[in-house]
Amino acid sequence: MDLLANVILGLETAATPVNLFYCFVGVFVGMFVGVLPGIGPLTAISMLLPLTYHFDPTTALIMLGGIWYGTAYGGSTAAILLNIPGTTSSAVACLDGYPMAQQGRGGVALLMTTVASFIGASIAIIILMAFAPTIASYALQFGSADYFSLMVLGLVAASAMSEGSAAKGLAMVVIGIILGTIGVDIYSGTSRFHFGLLELANGVSMAALAMGLFGVAEVIFSLRSAKRKTIDRSTVTFRAMKPTSDDLRRSWFPILRGTGLGSFFGTLPGTGPSIASFMAYAFEKRIAKEPKRFGKGAIEGVVAPEAANNAADQTAFIPTLALGIPGSATMALMLGALTINGIAPGPTLMTNHPQLFWGLIMSFWIGNLILLVLNIPMIGLWVRLLLVPYNLLYPAILVFICIGTYSINNSSFDVMVVAGFGLLGCIMRALSFPAAPLLLGFVLGPLMEEHFRRAMLLSRGDFMTFLDRPISVTVLIISAVILVWGVSSSFRANKKEEPAVQSG
Amino acid sequence: MIADKRDFISGLLLIGLGVGVALYAWMNYSLGSLQRMGPGMFPFGSGLVLAFFGVLVIIPAFLRASSEEASSVPVGSMIWILLSVVAFAVTIPVAGLAPAVAATVLISSIADRDFNILRVVILSVCVATLTYLIFVVGLNLPILLYRWPL
Fold first, then answer.
1. Any CB–CB contact under 8 A between B59 and chain A?
2. Nearest to A493 among B18, B64, B82 (CB)
3. Vertex A446 angle, CA A445 and A451, to 5°
4. pLDDT in tens, A187-225
5. Complex ipTM, two decimals?
6. From the list A394, A461, A493, which residue is nearest B34 (CB)?
7. What is the model's pTM?
8. Domain boundaries, chain B
């Protein structure tokens, strides 16, 4: 199949009225939660995950994808105007964006970040279109042992690099894997760890787990920090948005460099948009002629990270769609949305479900265009949204979480599970355990078990199968290096906690 | 002297949980052989790996000079918010959507510093209308708006 035919197929899928509508819903919600501090993409996607049980899988992914990259656009708005990052990946936009707003150049910063986001995302989509099919066709020859090793790498990298102690992150992955074993074992039909509860026979609901850990726990912790805010409205009028020719000249190369860095880091497990935007900022500062301007409203420091995090948002789909191995908790939820709809993720996705794959990618173009339009003329609306008090918002979020979970199976038990995971989320935060690796382990656990058992069956119980295959052994060596590096760094006495970067 | 108590407790919890899972899997499900694994093998192995990471969390706790900054749990708001979720689960099968929404909004609002009953009532009505439109009208789900008499 040639690319053109695929693109046309994708456009036909993405441009149906239903898909267009949910693409719009997705990016709108993404923009919405991106602007609002206190709700990140993970919370938003877990909140809308139940809806996708009632959708066609393509539509579901189009909507969830829209939320994911939509938040990257919205996140910078709060960062620039209020010095509050709407999402973690836009924390960098505070550094130079807020000083720009204080100088009355907030409008310029908003416009340029939108343009940078659009350019970054567009280039990354092209990279995605070019590489994902190639990687998938290569991956078709992977055996179960290779898959198992790749998942080990994904989990090790995601937990060792995300935040805080590597050992704690890895422990969370294993807890996720154990939670994933609850329910019926596919080989023997034995029901495991149900403790006499009939409701657990089908396993823990992924939506309930995600909403408890990310939604409920997030609400509990952001209640205290929510404050009243004020914004200087005059900087965000249309007229104040016009960049000077100096701004444009300065922005061009940082946008391209940011896109390059972002596209690269987006594909790696564990790094994702947050790390990509920090890297892009550090890089621009390093090569700048006058590094002193950074932190005082340098436009390069706003556009490069924004281009990077939007590019990373798109290229994060490469491992998820081509290999079926998500690099972050958010991507794990996307993968979960596929599996609940009975679609096996992996390299065969593109050939078995081309309309889903290409439809999703084409929807990225449409979604990014919608965001461009939503952002610039409607900036006033988003600014007003920033002023909605949190005490009106959080009860509504909780209700939405509850009814969303309930709606999946009309099950009150699942809503109770949400409360349980909310409690677990709080305990984990108190003991400074990261939550994202748990979700990643939970989604990948059953797949890992399946591949592990199949690999052992094929090798007749010989562990050497993981070391005999070239792909598997390479991947395991890389994992081991990351593991040793990550764990040993937490052994250093008096280690300073790095700023918590949630890999979302 | 254990400097970092929080990590020490965390590590103990992980070891306990890991060993517990491994034992439970070992006693209740068949492990099978390496070639033909039974349903208990993978959870058994995972439990042991978890206990191992628990040890890795405990060791540095002895080496560190002081406890790291942690986000303390806002216990008060946590209780109200978790209760509001439980209230939804209990109410909806008995009384329907609208009472469940009202219960959740009311109980979760208690966690708010400036609690205002009028705002709670208005918010409940708005949220109930919105969820009814999305889930019952929009998605055609079989959820009753209210059930009366109980």
1. yes
2. B64
3. 100
4. 777 888 878 787 788 888 888 998 898 889 888 888 876
5. 0.91
6. A461
7. 0.84
8. 5-65, 75-138
